[in-house]
Amino acid sequence: MRSCEVRARSFGEILDAGLWLLRDHGRVLVGAAAVVHVPMQLLATAWPQRSAGAPWLLAAPPIALAWLVVIPLARAAITWAIGEVHLGRPVSVAEALRRAWLLLLPLSGTTLLAWMAYVILGGVAGFMAALTAVLFARQFVAVAVVIVTVPVFVYLGFIFALLSPVMVLERTFGLRALKRSRELVQGSGARTLGVFLAGSLAVGVLSGILQLVLGRIPVLGPIGMGLALSAGASYSSAVLTLLYFDLRCRKEAFDLEHLARLVARETPAAPVLA
């Protein structure tokens, strides 16, 4: 087994270490994600689909549940488990989920704040692009909106990429967590963007392929997709947590003693979200 000590790593080493973590601790990492992702896939399949006769709001509850509860919960469980792995402590699916569940409210609240930033900034950028296109070249409105909003979303994605480690390991939430994530990635934009995109592609490509292969198979299809998403989410969370360790090593002389103090903290009774 390769060493899991906290140290600075190159871009390639981070991606490689993520694979080794998944190989050596996949039962816990993928298992913790699967406990929440598989039921979510089954719920999304069973829920009335959007159609001409079904209002869009009927499809909204599973989507909102996924983004505000399922994904933050899974990422938090994986992040906590990786912290324990680095300390050489035994980890279990039940304990990882328990730790994440204790932070569910501030996790969801901070995630909502991040998505509000996406909606507001992306909406403003899209509106300005559409207005400019209407004034000068109406036939390119859609193209202009895409060209402007996609970079905005990518930028927000990578400056908020370390939200989960910041929330789980530092017990920092709300606006302070958003600011902390942005501060950590400052000066390391290329590496952060590379790791962020690699993790996102792992989830996106895997889910896209399995959607084509398993999408029409009742019950087993959603279960298979949930397991695949769990593996992709585990890798994505692993590399982002390793990036968090890497950036703190480079900027703040972060080591195992610091990590031990972080994960030993008790969950605050009423975390501050602002």
Helices, strands, pairings?
Elements: H1 11-46, H2 60-86, H3 93-102, H4 104-136, H5 141-159, H6 163-170, H7 174-185, H8 189-214, H9 220-252, H10 256-263
Describe what you observe in this structure:
By secondary structure, the chain is mainly alpha-helical. It has one domain (11-263). 77% of the residues lie in helices and 0% in strands. It is built from 10 helices and no strands. The chain has helices spanning 11-46, 60-86, 93-102, 104-136, 141-159, 163-170, 174-185, 189-214, 220-252, 256-263. The radius of gyration is 19 Å and the shape is globular. Residues 50-59 and 267-274 have low confidence and may be disordered.
Short summary of the structure?
By secondary structure, this protein is mostly helical. Helices cover 77% and strands 0% of the residues.
Q: What is the alpha-carbon Rg in Å? A: 19 Å
- Coarse structural class: mainly alpha
Order of helices and strands: HHHHHHHHHH
Largest sheet: none
Characteristics of this structure?
single chain, 274 residues, mainly alpha
